[in-house]
Structure formats: C-alpha cells, structure tokens
Amino acid sequence: MSQVREVSSLFKIARWGVLGAGVSYGFLRNRSLRSDAEARRIDEAYARKVALIEEAKKKFAEKKAAESGSSTSQKFDFDDPNFDADKWFSHIETKFQ
C-alpha cells in the first residue's frame, strides 16, 4: 500500500491566495479594458459626427456660393474700379440660357 502525503497548510493557503489574486487581477483588468474600449468608441463616434458636420458645412457653403453666383438679383457696379467684366459676362450668359 502506498501512503498518502499530507499537504502543508501553508501551501494550501498560498495556492488559494494566488488563485484569488489572479481572479481579482483578471476582473480589474477586464473592467479597465472595457472602459478604455468604451471611451475609444465614444471618441470615434464623436469624430465621425464632427467630420459629417464639417462636410455638410462645406457643401452648404458651396451651394450658397453657387446660388449667389447664379442669382438674377445680383447687382453690378460699373463705376467700381474693381469691376469684374468676366463675372458680369458669365452672369449674362447664365441669364439668357
């Protein structure tokens, strides 16, 4: 018959202590990684919204410039020293097309 050795109490306590420390570390690390991922996801969503707003502003400015350039109510001052004849000709062309 073989004899069973008894494991010391110190070894049992150390083994359970290391297991508890590992579980605690895993829990805290998981919570930290999740909060970092959530913060990154929020930042990316915000950056995407800002980019969409900037793109919309740019398109609105282009549309507004196109509307103001082709409007029939545009007034030209022929006595102005900075009078742009090319702009006036293109306005006349768009008016009669």
TrEMBL record:
Q: Where in the cell is it found?
A: Mitochondrion inner membrane
- Identify the keywords attached in UniProt to this record, alphabetized: ATP synthesis, CF(0), Hydrogen ion transport, Ion transport, Membrane, Mitochondrion, Mitochondrion inner membrane, Transport
Q: What does this protein do?
A: Subunit e, of the mitochondrial membrane ATP synthase complex (F(1)F(0) ATP synthase or Complex V) that produces ATP from ADP in the presence of a proton gradient across the membrane which is generated by electron transport complexes of the respiratory chain. ATP synthase complex consist of a soluble F(1) head domain - the catalytic core - and a membrane F(1) domain - the membrane proton channel. These two domains are linked by a central stalk rotating inside the F(1) region and a stationary peripheral stalk.
Organism (species): Coemansia brasiliensis
Answer whether the UniProt record assigns the keyword RNA-binding to this protein. no
Q: Which GO terms describe its molecular function?
A: proton transmembrane transporter activity
Q: Which InterPro entries match?
A: ATP_synth_F0_esu_mt (IPR008386)
Q: Please provide one cellular component term from the Gene Ontology annotations of this protein.
A: mitochondrial inner membrane
Per the record, the GO terms for biological process are: proton motive force-driven ATP synthesis
Protein name in the entry = ATP synthase F(0) complex subunit e, mitochondrial
Q: Does the keyword Protein biosynthesis apply?
A: no
Q: How does it assemble?
A: F-type ATPases have 2 components, CF(1) - the catalytic core - and CF(0) - the membrane proton channel. CF(1) and CF(0) have multiple subunits.
Primary subcellular site in the record, as a coarse category: mitochondrion
